Amino acid sequence: MPGQDLSQNNQIAIFAGGCFWCMVKPFEDLPGVLQVFSGYTGGEKENPTYQEVCSNSTGHFEAVKVIFDPNQLEYKDLLEVFWKQIDPTDGGGQFFDRGTSYRTAIFYHDEEQRKAALKSKDELDNSGIFQDPVVTMIIPATTFYLAEEYHQQYYRKNPEHYRQYSIGSGRDAFVREKSDLVRPDFTKRKTQLDSMQYYVTQENGTEPAFKNKYWDNKREGLYVDVVSGEPLFTSLDKYDSGCGWPSFTIPLYQGRLVEKEDLSHNLQRIEVRSKTADSHLGHLFRDGPEPNGLRYCINSAALRFIAREDLIREGYGEYLEIFIRAGK
Fold this sequence. Notes:
Elements: E1 4-5, E2 10-17, H1 21-28, E3 33-41, H2 50-54, E4 61-68, H3 75-85, E5 93-94, E6 97-98, E7 104-108, H4 111-125, E8 137-140, E9 145-146, H5 154-157, H6 159-168, H7 171-178, H8 187-191, H9 195-203, E10 221-225, E11 231-234, E12 238-239, E13 247-248, E14 257-262, E15 269-274, E16 280-285, E17 295-298, E18 303-307, H10 320-325
Parallel strand pairs: 7-8
Antiparallel strand pairs: 1-2, 2-4, 2-7, 3-4, 3-9, 5-6, 10-11, 10-18, 12-13, 13-17, 14-15, 15-16, 16-17
Helix pairs in contact: 1-3, 3-4
C-alpha cells in the first residue's frame, strides 16, 4: 500500500499544520509513533529549499511525515492530535505565519485514510467548537521532500527558541484554550494495559503497598501517564514517604492533574486524575514535607518511568533541561 513503509510493515501519515517546528513534538509524544520528519509537500518544484517554500512561490506546504505502528496506534488517533494543534478555520496560514506554505491540510495515501480524514473533519465542523467553518484541505499525498537537517526535531535541538516561537506566535495560547474541547481517543491504548494498570487507571483501584514497580525507584527521570504518555512528575520531586507507593511533593505541571473529592471506603480524600486521559492516579494528602506540605501518593501502575538517559530517545528530550538546571 502507498500509505505504508513496507520494510517495517508500518504506516505513514502526512499533515500540514503551519510551522512544522511545532507539529513534530505532539506526534512524537504518542506511543506507537516511530519517527516524525519535517518537510515539504503538495507543490510542483522538486527538492525545494526552506527559503523557496517560505516565499510562497512553490505551492508546497510545510508538513510533517509521521511513521507509526498500526498495531499500537490508529490513524484516527493521529487525526485527533492533528486537530488539537491548529486553527482549522484559518485558510490564510497559521497564527502569525501567513501564506500558502502555512495552510493546513491532511494528505491521504489511500481510501481508508481519505474516509477517516473526511469523517473527522465533518465531526469537528459539526461539533460547535468553532464558530467558523473548518477549511483544512484533504488532499491526495504526493512526493514528500525532507526539510534541511537544521529543521528536523527543532524543538529538541533549540528548546529555548522553540518555546519562545511557539508562545510568541500565539499557537500555545490557542492550543491550551481548545485542548479541553478536542480530546484524543485512548480506547485502543487502554486495551493494551495489563490487568493491574487497567484496574488502577480505569477502575479507580489501588495496587499493593511496597509491592509495586516504582515505590523505591531512585533513578533520575520522568514519570508519565501510562495511558497518554503525558509527563506528570519527575524524580526531582519524588521522596520516600514510607507509605509504600511513589510519593511526590509537586506535579510537573499542575494543569495536567484533576483533583476530585473521594468519599469511598468511608474516607474523605482527594482523588488525583490525569487531565488528558482521565486516568485514576492516586490521592493527594496534606502530610507531606515542607514547604508545601503536600504528598501526591500515586500508583506505580498508573505511571511509566523514563530514565534521564532515555529521554531523548523516547521523545521527551525537552525535559532534559529540567535536570540540567537542577545540577543533577
